């Protein structure tokens, strides 16, 4: 199939076959071969999925030997580009006026996106009113108000307490973040591990009796030699995934995981990033892929979010100063903030 029409039909047939039988090894491998010349990363993922179904599938093994080094080199290049953006950003002072304005704006943006991912219907302007003016928004529930306040408190705690703390990241730190995230919604469950079994789509998190053990192991990993050899973005993304995999709390796991991810990024000199509402589908799809055994799509997704954030910072730094009360400010596309200097 060489012409575009036939390729389009073939693509649909492969997708249909895998929708009917997601573990159809031959279809996974053939689909990878079909895509390899135009999308080697996607092809490599398909070969990997085929091998997770049948580790001895010879053709997929041979195909992966060909694609894996190419994909590894691609990922290295992505991280190198992110480091280059970070280095470029640090040529500017953290007190640069447009960067400071951008920092303030992203504070609202981050709260908006992280609660919206969980179904909160507050608009960006309504969130600004709640935080700045301390007023209630008519037509919105008490729970939605308290979710906004909770994230604002958690961000404040991270900036003012955790980032100046010397030492390891601990389970207590994670519980403290969660306590603020959920403290205004569920004061009794905030900062406490669940004591019941939960289900997240097809994923079944650990039994409640095992949560303490899993979290102790997670703390060990967070401070292990292994993470020293990871790029900070990779480290932050895997930490996010591992926390939502354990799902230690009844509610607020996603919000806490995104805050933990940003805490790690900020400790390593990166600005915090948002998972934007428009990227919700890709965010959840890559988390599902991680549950199925391949975390690389999720790491790449977080890397793109990080790159976009750095790009936004650099864009803000190169603009003439605009006050956040200026109507033109919001046309400038600011969406990020720097951690406290």
Description:
The chain is mainly α and 341 residues long. It folds into 2 domains: 4-73, Serine Threonine Protein Phosphatase 5, Tetratricopeptide repeat, CATH 1.25.40.10; 90-331, Fido-like domain (Fic-like fold), CATH 1.10.3290. The chain has helices at residues 4-20, 25-35, 40-53, 58-89, 97-116, 124-133, 142-160, 171-182, 211-222, 225-228, 232-246, 253-267, 280-291, 296-317. α2 (25-35) runs antiparallel to α3. It starts with a helix and ends in a 24-residue tail after the last helix. The model is unreliable at 327-341 (pLDDT under 50).
Search tags:
mainly alpha; 14 helices; 341 residues; single chain; disordered C terminus; Serine Threonine Protein Phosphatase 5, Tetratricopeptide repeat; Fic-like fold
Number of helices: 14
Radius of gyration: 22 Å
Helix content: 55-70%
What's the β-strand tally?
Answer: 0
Please give the CATH architecture of the largest domain. Orthogonal Bundle
Terminal CA distance: 57 Å
Poorly predicted tracts of residues: 327-341
Order of helices and strands: HHHHHHHHHHHHHH
Q: Which descriptor suits the 3D outline? A: globular
CATH domain class of the largest domain: Mainly Alpha
Which structural class do the helices and strands define?
A: mainly alpha
Beta-strand residue fraction:
under 5%
Major sheet characteristics? none
What is the average per-residue confidence, as pLDDT, rounded to a whole number?
89
Domain Fido: 169-304
Catalytic activity: L-tyrosyl-[protein] + ATP = O-(5'-adenylyl)-L-tyrosyl-[protein] + diphosphate; L-threonyl-[protein] + ATP = 3-O-(5'-adenylyl)-L-threonyl-[protein] + diphosphate
Keywords: ATP-binding, Membrane, Nucleotide-binding, Nucleotidyltransferase, Repeat, TPR repeat, Transferase, Transmembrane, Transmembrane helix
Binding site for ATP: 200-203, 251-258, 283-284, 291
């Amino acid at each position: 199939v060489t012409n575009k029409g036939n390729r389009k039909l073939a693509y649909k047939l492969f997708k249909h076959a895998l929708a009917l039988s997601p573990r159809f090894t031959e279809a996974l491998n053939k689909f990878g071969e079909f895509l390899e010349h135009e999308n080697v990363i996607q092809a490599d993922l398909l070969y990997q999925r085929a091998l997770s179904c049948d580790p001895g599938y010879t053709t997929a093994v041979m195909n992966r030997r060909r694609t894996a080094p190419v994909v590894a080199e691609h990922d290295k290049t992505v991280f190198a580009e992110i480091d280059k953006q970070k280095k470029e950003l640090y040529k500017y002072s953290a007190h640069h006026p447009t960067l400071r304005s951008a920092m303030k704006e992203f504070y609202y943006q981050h709260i908006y996106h992280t609660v919206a991912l969980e179904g909160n219907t507050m608009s960006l302007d309504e969130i600004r009113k709640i935080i700045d003016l301390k007023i209630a928004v008519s037509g919105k529930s008490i729970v939605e108000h308290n979710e906004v306040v909770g994230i604002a408190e958690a961000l404040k705690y991270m900036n003012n307490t955790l980032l100046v703390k010397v030492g390891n990241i601990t389970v207590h730190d994670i519980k403290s973040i969660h306590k603020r995230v959920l403290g205004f919604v569920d004061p009794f469950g905030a900062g406490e591990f669940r004591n019941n079994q939960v289900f997240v789509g097809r994923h079944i998190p650990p039994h409640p009796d095992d949560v303490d053990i899993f979290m102790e192991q997670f703390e060990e990993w967070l401070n292990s030699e292994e993470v020293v050899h990871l790029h900070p973005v990779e480290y932050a993304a895997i930490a996010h995934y591992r926390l939502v995999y354990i799902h230690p709390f009844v509610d607020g796991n996603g919000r806490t995981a995104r805050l933990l991810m940003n805490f790690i990024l900020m400790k390593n000199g990166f600005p915090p990033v948002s998972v934007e509402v428009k990227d919700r589908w890709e965010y959840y799809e890559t988390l599902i892929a991680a549950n199925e055994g391949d975390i690389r799509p999720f790491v790449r997704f977080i890397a793109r979010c990080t790159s976009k954030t750095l790009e936004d910072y650099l864009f803000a730094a190169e603009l003439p100063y605009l006050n956040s009360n200026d109507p033109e400010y919001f046309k400038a596309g600011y969406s990020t903030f720097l951690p406290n200097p």
